[in-house]
Amino acid sequence: MRRTNEVGQRSRHPSMELFEDRRVFTADLLGALDSNQLGLSSDEQDIAQLQAILSQFQQTTNHTNVHSSFGLTGAGQTVVVIDSGIAYDHPALGGGLGAEYRVVAGWDFAENDANPFDDAPAGFHGTHVAGIIGSSDGRYTGLAPDVDLVALRVFNDQGQGDFSRIEQALRWVHNHRDAFEFPVTTVNMSIGSNWYSHNVPAWSTIEDELRLLKEDGIFVAVAAGNSFDAEKGVGLSYPAASPHVVPVASADATGAMSIFSQRSDRVLVAPGENIVSTGVDYLFDFNGRTDDFVSSSGTSMASPFVAGASVLLRQAMELMGWQDITQDTLYEYFVDTASPIHDSITNAEYWGIDLTNAFDTLLADDFGGDSLDGHALGTIEGEMTQRGTITRVDDHDVFTFVAPSTGTVEVSVAAVTGSTGFLLSDGGGAMAESLSYAVQSGHTYSVDVCGTGSIGTYDVTLSWTPSDRTSVPAIDLGRVDLLQWQWNGGDAEQTFVFEAAHDGWATWQGIVADAGQRVDWECYDEWGTLLAAGRSNSLGRFDATYDVVAGQQYTMRLTGDVGPVDMQLCNLLSVVGEDVLIWGTSNDDTLYFQPAPSGTSVGTHRIVVDGMAYRFSADQPWQFRFQAGIGHDEVILLGSARQEQATIFGGGATLVGESVTGAQFSVSVGQIERVAIRSGGGDDRLSMIGSDGNEAVALRQGRAFATFAGFTATARGFTRVEVDLGAGEGDSVVMHGTSGSDILESRGDAYRLSGAGIEFVSQNADKVTVFGRGGYDSTYIMDSLGDDRFTGRPHAAVFDSADTLLVIRQFEFVDIESTQGGFDRAQLFDSAGDEWLYQGPQWTQFDGAGFSYRLSGFDDVRQMASRGGNDNVVVIPAASATSVLSTTPTTVRSLLNSVPAAEGSSLSMTDGEDRPASAGSGEYTSRDTLFDTDLTVAVLAQSHAWITQTHARDVSSPLADESGEEWSIVESLFGGNA
Q1: According to a count of CB atoms within 10 Å of the terminal CB, is the N or C end of the chain lower?
Q2: 83-117 burial: b if 16+ Cβ within 10 Å, else e
Q3: Comparing C-alpha atoms, which of 383, 414, 389 is closest to residue 401?
Q4: With contact defined as beta carbons under 8 Å apart, do 645 and 682 qualify?
């Protein structure tokens, strides 16, 4: 509380003071501004601080929620601010003075004129208080932003005042309480004297005026005082101690009592620390415009909060039809809905203003907001009126009624209290003050009542008129998910009733056999609410889609002199936001999806389910999910010219892409028996994922086919296909190359076939078969960690590894590398033509007409040359070659005989029946039958070093290697039985 230079008591007219944070203002007003507690809107650094304070303030008071939820802004009332005046040119306070502005009037009792401006040098206080009550600024909004204000200035330019001016101001309020467009309902006095008690001082001169304003029904809020931290006792300043006013104490942002705030068991407690509100230009940024906002603390800030809150509460009570609202009415309601604040210093409980509880309690909903908890009016006979209340901006009341017989019910709504209008809705989207229902005997109907931006009470009136026309009995279609039927037509109306199978959409389509005839149609829910209506077009067609709830009953009505009408009813789609769920039926279903075309316009995605077509705008993302039924279901998914990713798995598939705007779509299907996916162009990718069962996949250029357990899938036009068949037994993949040159690569159980326009990848298959179709096709294979076996024949090969059985056909070149481990064997078979066998230290190459095998790192390589032709062998040692000798069989024997055996080693050779020919040191002989065909053998120089060092064996066991496996490189080289 700021002490003025005239603090003290006088016998009749003691001096008055404005209440504010004494830590901000002192007697030396201009020299005491504290930038840590006063914020200027023109300073960018302070704006963030002020906004943070404001946010904390709004969270504490929650008054902006009152504005948005209930539409309460103080309109229709006038608040008088008895203070240092108001800087009425501030935009947040209306920008001017007079009937056409927010500050509608005022008087300066210090200077005795009609200009109550908040003057320098000691101004500011009244402007700040006025902003807390009624600022209309979007950032720093007051409690009642639409209330009118009156400024009564009782302090002079130096901030000095006395009770004689206060007395005049209070009389002025009484005399002018009805002088403005809206009546004066509230007075705020954030002022006080040097007094600390619960009682009225003997020198008081304003009790009669305060009593008179209370009798007028005016709410008078007064600051409790800021001297608690000095006095340390319970008591109020004056006039807060008057029994005719509402004293207001201060709390901080956490809800605790402010240390400076005076206390009493009568006080209401409101936020009073670091409150941001309107300020005057001459104290702050001096930019010539009154547009500042500042922060201040004190019970002076708490009092206008309660004053503004009382304006909102009175407005709500009046809209609810309350009569004779007084200060006590408002005060007691605030107490009844308050949140207790425990003060540890005085060990007492005080009443903290709780706006949320106050307005939620006062404006509780009276009737339900939907047909399940709506108010049942029963059977309508004649005319009936029901009063209701709209308690929130978004509130709406539902009334249900039963038709006594076929006829018409007229419904109208009219306001009782409040300036708002009220409208009716029958659920069909139209809003009006009156509606007409065509009703049937015994059916239940509903009507919605809603406000147009505010709250209040209304009367809804229903009037029933019977029909003189006899209706044809309704046809019950039962529970429907998908149904086709025909109505034979006629001149009478026909009604169809069905129960919805699913939550979601119901689509009713029909076509009149004679397109020149017209038929009127209507759709109703089980309460008689009109959902859709119309007339068939020039082609005789009509359709309607509306929301339904599973298990509820709906009515469709046709009227017109027409011939047969073919109809279909579909209840298979649910649309929630961007998620579209499509159900299958117990029959065979077909789902067709086509994305929006790849043009410049957005276009629409098209879904056709069992012949019923739907379109969805491609400018937003969509997720389409098909949940198939128990029949044999088929899905067709099409791609666009943009890139898409398709996935096929056991019993299902997905397709993901995006529209021209970049909005993504996805289609997922499951529990189906067949799916067909076609690429629309672009770099589309296809993944095929297996399960624990047996699967088979076949891949060709532009085509893919898969059979899973109870499921088949086909795909066309995909440039890249990836297959992963999982952990099942007996999975197989067949891949066909192109007419050009293709490359097959493998590592473990992963295979990749690539060529012009294709890239096929296979993993986890038990058998992979690959066909070359032309060009020069190459294969590169890496062995597994286990024992592998390779068999190579002209234009066909089998690689049996621990991971996969690989079959290769019509490939010109096969390269297999054995480096991973295990004992790997190979067998090579010749053709009837000429072949060449090249044998190196760790590799073998076998070439024939149109085929070539290259093997490296194998533990056992055997070659069978038994089908004829001029077969050749080339042995390449580890050392560099210096010469080549072409020999006859006799020369071969002589050469081998001249090769000395390494020390401790011997050479051996078997005949065609795996019998040793001879063995010895430095000699080699053989039966002639081993060379019964002409051979040309090229032996490079120093071959004996490689032969003797690599293949030396124990003389006693020339056919056994270290592992005990039967082995003979010589037999393989010279074409014996492998």
Answers
A1: C
A2: bbbbbbbbebbbeebeeebbbbbbbbbbeeeeebb
A3: 383
A4: no
Q: What are phi and psi of 516, to 5 degrees?
A: -75, -15
Q: Which of 330, 460, 325, 338 is nearest to 390 (CA)?
A: 460
CA-based nearest residue to 596, from 675, 676, 660, 682? 660
* Residue in 771, 655, 643, 664 with CA at minimum distance from that of residue 719: 643
Token pair 């509780």 is found at 364
**Percentages of the chain per state (helix, strand, coil), in multiples of 5:** 15, 40, 45
β-pair type (434-439, 553-559): unpaired
- The identity of residue 110, as a single letter, is A
**pLDDT, the chain, mean:** 80
> Residue holding tokens 């290769």?
808
Task: Calculate what percentage of the chain has a pLDDT beyond 90.
Answer: 49
CB 69 within 8 A of CB 393: yes
Which residue intervals of 82-204 are DSSP H helices? 125-134, 163-176
Mean pLDDT, range 153-164, rounded to an integer: 90
Q: Which of 686-695, 784-793, 969-978 has the lowest mean pLDDT?
A: 969-978
Q: What is the distance of C-alpha 966 from the center of its chain?
A: 68
Q: Widest CA span of the chain, in angstroms?
A: 152
At 316-360, the pLDDT tens digits run 999 888 999 999 999 999 999 999 999 999 999 999 999 999 999
Structure tokens at 673: 């028996």
Q: Please, are residues 732 and 766 in contact by the beta-carbon 8 Å criterion? A: yes
**Position 759: which residue type?**
E
- Cβ atoms within 10 Å, residue 950: 12
How far, in Å, CA of 722 to CA of 682, rounded?
A: 17
Confidence at 37, pLDDT banded by 50, 70, 90: very low
Buried b (16+ CB within 10 A) or exposed e, 119-134: beebbbbbbbbbbbbb
Q: What is the pLDDT of residue 40?
A: 32
Residue 537 CA, chain-centre distance (Å), reads 39
Query: What pLDDT shows up at residue 427?
Result: 63
How many whole angstroms separate alpha carbon 127 and alpha carbon 41?
Answer: 15
The reported pLDDT for the residue numbered 19 is: 58
Q: In what order do the strands lie in the sheet with 422-425?
A: 375-379, 396-402, 444-451, 422-425, 431-432
Q: CA torsion 178→183→186→191, rounded to 10°?
A: -50
- Specify which residues 667 forms β-bridges with: 624, 655
Q: Which two tokens mark 638?
A: 């099409």
3-state secondary structure 456-491: EEEEEEEEEEECCCCCCCCEEEEEECEEEEEECCEC
pLDDT score recorded for residue 3: 28
Q: Averaged over 925-940, what is the pLDDT?
A: 30
Q: What's the number of CA atoms in the CB half-sphere (13 Å) around residue 535?
A: 9
Residue 239 identity (one-letter amino acid): P
Q: Rounded to whole angstroms, how far apart are CA atoms 700 and 672? A: 24
Q: Are 745 and 783 in contact (CB under 8 A)?
A: no
d(CA 925, CA 906) in angstroms, rounded, equals 13
CA–CA distance, 335 with 357 (Å, rounded to integer)? 11
Q: What is the DSSP string of 348-390?
A: EEEEE--HHHHHHHHT---S-SSTTTSEEEEE--SEEEEEEEE
Tokens representing 947 are 């032969």
| Residues 90 and 41 sit within 8 Å (Cβ to Cβ) | no
Tell me which long-range contacts 798-801 makes (C-beta under 8 A, separation of at least 24).
801/748, 801/749
Element (H or E) spanning 317, and its range? helix 299-319
